[in-house]
Amino acid sequence: MSDLSITEALTSDDIVIEGTVGTTTAEDAKMSMRNVNVFYGDKQAIKNVSLDLARNQVTALIGPSGCGKSTFLRCLNRMNDTIPICRVEGELKLEEQDIYAKKLDPVLLRARVGMVFQKPNPFPKSIYDNVAYGPRIHGLAANRAELDEIVVSSLQKAGLFGEVKDRLDAPGTGLSGGQQQRLCIARTIAVSPEVILMDEPASALDPIATAVIEELIDELKEKYTIAIVTHSMQQAARVSQATAYFHMGHLVEMGKTEQIFTNPTHELTENYITGRFG
Ligand SMILES: Nc1ncnc2c1ncn2[C@@H]1O[C@H](COP(=O)(O)OP(=O)(O)OP(=O)(O)O)[C@@H](O)[C@H]1O
């Protein structure tokens, strides 16, 4: 394919992408998705995507704006349930559990598969209460001492405790952007999730706060399985072990991050990572 035809193909709605190249399965999968299709009304946003999230790894979902990264991520803890016109088809499993099973309570699923959003969104409550909120509604602490312990250890794991330990009663909204995002990560961790989904978690932050979040993501993978949507290829390369390249609803290519960024197989992936499209 010449560059011109690639450019045409990249901007055409008629592009045909057959299957996914690379490795989409993991030996030790924490989550497995097979033949996932997602529709908003009549419009199909995800087209027959299959991939695994490997346990204790960071998987980056990358691709041009509108390719379906966030839609796919939101399927993994049923956040799309909140969009009435959205319909999800296919098999989505958290270990052996079908996460779309009728009997499954999405609120409990979201405690197991937590989510951190693009814009830090602390509740208008104290730092303490932000982190204690989840454990309280899920009844995870028998008494105040246990709750204190969860709050402190969650703030520690999110790398924020040292900065806020003397002002746990202060409002969470009074923290800096980067601190607020770490507070949101602490809030997610507080309910002991198994998987953490991150939708562009650093895009609203300055480079220093971004570096802190990236270091934290690297530490968090020791305990959790992580999927991150990012527009920053440098960030994907820095924090992830596996990368999935989406294009117009298709999963074009997936593999080890190093290979995707140094030696991609598909021309569409190569064009994206070399900055010819995006
Ligand atoms: N709530 C919605 N209702 C209707 N269509 C939607 C909705 N959310 C997303 N879409 C459409 O689904 C497609 C995929 O969107 P999505 O937000 O998942 O892409 P993305 O790759 O995450 O984009 P971005 O990088 O810009 O955030 C787009 O065509 C978008 O317009």
From TrEMBL:
<dbReference type="InterPro" id="IPR003439">
    <property type="entry name" value="ABC_transporter-like_ATP-bd"/>
</dbReference>
<protein>
    <submittedName>
        <fullName>Phosphate ABC transporter ATP-binding protein</fullName>
    </submittedName>
</protein>
<keyword id="KW-0813">Transport</keyword>
<dbReference type="InterPro" id="IPR027417">
    <property type="entry name" value="P-loop_NTPase"/>
</dbReference>
<keyword id="KW-0547">Nucleotide-binding</keyword>
<dbReference type="InterPro" id="IPR017871">
    <property type="entry name" value="ABC_transporter-like_CS"/>
</dbReference>
<dbReference type="GO" id="GO:0005524">
    <property type="term" value="F:ATP binding"/>
</dbReference>
<keyword id="KW-0067">ATP-binding</keyword>
<dbReference type="GO" id="GO:0016887">
    <property type="term" value="F:ATP hydrolysis activity"/>
</dbReference>
<feature type="domain" description="ABC transporter">
    <location>
        <begin position="31"/>
        <end position="273"/>
    </location>
</feature>
<dbReference type="GO" id="GO:0016020">
    <property type="term" value="C:membrane"/>
</dbReference>
<dbReference type="GO" id="GO:0005315">
    <property type="term" value="F:phosphate transmembrane transporter activity"/>
</dbReference>
<keyword id="KW-0592">Phosphate transport</keyword>
<dbReference type="InterPro" id="IPR005670">
    <property type="entry name" value="PstB-like"/>
</dbReference>
<dbReference type="Pfam" id="PF00005">
    <property type="entry name" value="ABC_tran"/>
</dbReference>
<dbReference type="GO" id="GO:0035435">
    <property type="term" value="P:phosphate ion transmembrane transport"/>
</dbReference>
<dbReference type="InterPro" id="IPR003593">
    <property type="entry name" value="AAA+_ATPase"/>
</dbReference>
